[in-house]
Structure formats: C-alpha cells, structure tokens
Amino acid sequence: MLRTPVNTIRLSSRRALSGSRIVANKETIETPSKLASTSSLPKIEQNLLKKSPRQPSKKSPFLSSNVIESDPNYKMAGWMQQIGQTVIRVFNIDMDASRSGPVAGSKYYGECKKQSLYYPNEPLSDSARFYYETLGLPQSFSQWFQITTLHYWILTVRMRAMPFKYGKNYQQKLVDRFFKDMELRMAEELGINSNRIIEGYLKEYHSQLLGCVLSYDEGLQTDDITLAAALWRNVFNGDPNADMRHIEALLGHVRQQLYVLNKMSDRQFGFGDFEFVPPNEVVTPLTKAQEAELAAAVKKSYEGKTLPSQRSSLSLDE
After folding, report:
1. What global pTM score does this model have?
2. Which of 50, 128, 144, 194 is most buried, most CB within 10 Å of its CB?
3. Contact present, 108 and 174 (Cβ < 8 Å)
4. Which residue stretches, if any, does this entry annotate as coiled coil (predicted)?
C-alpha cells in the first residue's frame, strides 16, 4: 500500500501490527518485531561484568524547554513571521544551510533519541519495547547510546549523499546536539555532578561513536554478514549468547530505513520529512510505476512552498 510521501512505502498499520505475512517477489516478508519474536531459544541475560547500571532519577525535557521544540503545535505570531520572511528575502539567506539546525539538530535528533528512550516505572514506547523486551537488551544509558548511535549513523548515510556543503552541515548539527543532550542528561537525570567525569564519559562515547560508524560503513559497503557482525558487536555488546534471529531482525530493520531514505529526494530529506519506520511495520520494494507516482506526489506537495523561508536549491529528483 502506497502512503503519503512523508511515510513513503510502509504497509498499512493494521497489517503491520498484526505481523501478517505478505508475498513480494515470491519472498515471505515479516516485520522485524514478528521475526524476532518467532525465536524459540531460551533467553539468557547479558553478563555486563559490572554493577547494575545507574538509572535516571528524574526526567528532563525531551529536547529542550524552548517552546518551538517542546510544543509541536506552536505557531509564531504573524508579525514575527512577516519580519522573518523580510529579513530572509532582503539578505538572501541560504535557507538550506539555516534549516540544518532545526531539522538535523532538533527534528532528526529527536527521532534518534526516542527510539529506545526509557524511564523507570514508565511504559515503553513500541520501538523501545522492540529493543528492551523483544531483543532482550539491557536498559541502561550506554545501551540507549548504542541504539541512538545506530540511528544517527542511518541518518548520516543519507546526509553524506546530499550536496557536500549541506550534508556536512546537517551531520555537524546532528552530532553536536547528540553530545550536548548526553551531557545534560548525565548531569540532570543520572545525577553526575563532576564536569571532569562527564567530560571523560563524553570522550569515551565519542570514540565509541567513531568506531560504530566505521564498522557500520564497512558493513554497508560489503555485505549483510559484515553489517550483522557490526550490529552484534555494538548494539548486542558482543554477547556470545545473542540470539541470531534477533540480530537478523535488527539487520532487516536497519535495511528498511536505508531503503526508505534511498527513495527520498534531497529536498524531502532536507526539509525533515523522514521518520523511522517502526519495527512492527514492513517495507516492500517499490515498482517503477510506484516510484514515478511517488515522485509526482512529492513534487506536487512542494508546489505551494514559495515563501522566502521555504526556498531551497536541494533537488526534488535525487
């Protein structure tokens, strides 16, 4: 079923949530959640070789206390919008560069952050349940970091395909917000009061992020076996008892995201029109006719975006 350009090529939620099977190109496809849950192997808890991880003692704002980020229904006053549009037009501001902050540093970082975000005594989101209950990963800040890093990498794969000037800017805004948020969460939620200790953790996490990106890039450039090994080392913490069906499910989940991103134009992605496909949905390949239909629908949706703040040199064709 072809959905709107924003949701692109997902199946309807009813079919996906039921974990029902479909046939595409004579292959049976299941949702990642359904595939992982079919394993009959006994669950063996990971040996973290350390004390129980420190859990959040309080809950900080999801992104920030800024009203534009904290309130999805916020709308700037008309006179403020007019002033802003005039400034953009008079000074010929490059909106593709300016847009990278709110899109990559806010919208896309929020997409990464929420995938496995959890708080004690609060119900898990569907995506977080996939990681902590279906895949059996431990609930800890370090585990959240690994899952968020995976989603960060998925987005940077697409960002690196944008024109270099803008792709680099989007990547920088995303990683800057990632580490700024971790710093605040360690201080506010985990109660770490020493700046020196926080800085030490941030350096260690930065090294881990670089290693993850390198290993995932290698998998992307080679084969699924290499990418699955990278997922096992990082997301599954190299657990010798990891369930291979779970690794396979996560690999399929990652491939789904990459496929959707590959079918999005630079402008779509640059305007923040991407959302991660939930693990209880499945993506099916588009036919040539569906691709043409989708491209036409996307172009039509952008026809009315003519304000100075909506100008863009990013392509709608690639």
Report:
1. 0.90
2. 144
3. yes
4. none
